[in-house]
Design a protein that fits this description.
about 100 residues, mainly alpha, Non-ribosomal Peptide Synthetase Peptidyl Carrier Protein, Chain A, about 0% strand
């Protein structure tokens, strides 16, 4: 299961939490490509780790498992280009709903 551990009210999700959840997500959607969760410069779009199908799956994962939805403004190449930019987006959006 891809579910991120629930946090109690007032707890903020950490970058480590986000990285672990994304590592599980990518392990399931791209099992042949292990994800180095410490490599903020890891290219997601240009490497093929994140394609159109994975983007839909990721969007559903974020909504279902982490409890928030992305807005139209969030869907930029800059937000999804690298692991670091995706971690920052997820942390920022998730902490807004806690």
């Amino acid at each position: 299961m891809l579910k991120l551990e629930s946090k109690s009210a007032g707890d903020q999700i950490t970058d480590t939490d986000v990285r672990q959840a994304l590592a599980r997500f990518f392990a399931q959607t791209s099992p042949a490509t292990p994800l180095d969760t410490g490599d903020d410069g890891l290219e997601l779009l240009s490497s093929g780790l994140l394609d159109s199908l994975a983007m839909v799956q990721l969007t559903m994962f974020l909504a279902d498992e982490l409890g928030f939805e992305l807005s139209d403004e969030d869907f930029t190449e800059a937000n999804f280009a690298t692991l670091g930019s995706l971690v920052r987006l997820v942390s920022r959006k998730r902490n807004l709903v806690l």
